[in-house]
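Posting for a labmate who doesn't have an account.
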Amino acid sequence: MFDNFLISREEINKIKISQKKPFGLTTEKITQSPRSFNTSQIREGIENLIFTEEKEGLTPGILLRTIQYILKDFFLYMHQSGLYNRQLVLWKTLGNITHCNIYKLQKGLIKKMPLGIFTVDFFIDPKAPCISAVLLTSADQSTKEDCFKSLKYNLSKIISTRNIKRLKGIFYFLNTKPDSFFINNLDILTDAFDPIAKYESLLNWTKDVRLNVITFNEINEDCKFEHIYPQIQADREILLKK
């Protein structure tokens, strides 16, 4: 446990989120009346987003793609799947992000060693992040128990160091597909035993922080993402209920 106290994070870059056409269709406008917009209109809104690095060229490509995935692809996915009905607060927050800060985690007191873990804080109010993301790249998680322990530690670290009243969601990105042990323990973390409330995926030691787990696979210059938790494919009819 002492090693955990030697873990710190170093800022890599900041990214500003703006619109190509400020008076065009925006994700913020879409969240005000979600049932009024179809898929093509939502695509128009997310393609209106611009991502501008404060220090050009310093952000690893996987981090840029992750940020774009959250604010564009996942925003659309939530609407298409109906997940936004159960995580409406998080979905509306995604539509209003103005900037984000990117960090890498490292261990050591004097000599800092990278851990292969990155975090991203998303902001509307510059005083406190409203969404955080964790992305594991080369982190050592040799056993299924290690994988879940790492998740619990990272979630606890985020929640203990953020303003819990402002934090609405955490995205957790894995570079390997989790097994049933991992998913079953996620169910315990989110009290996922109600057939409808489970889609809210609220962390059970918070009142308003939702967890979404996503896998990613880098292929050359491309990256494939897959939302795996909360699991929604087989129960779409329930999810779409008001």
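Reply:
Got it, the structure tokens are right above this. Residues 7 and 107 are 4 Å apart (CA to CA).
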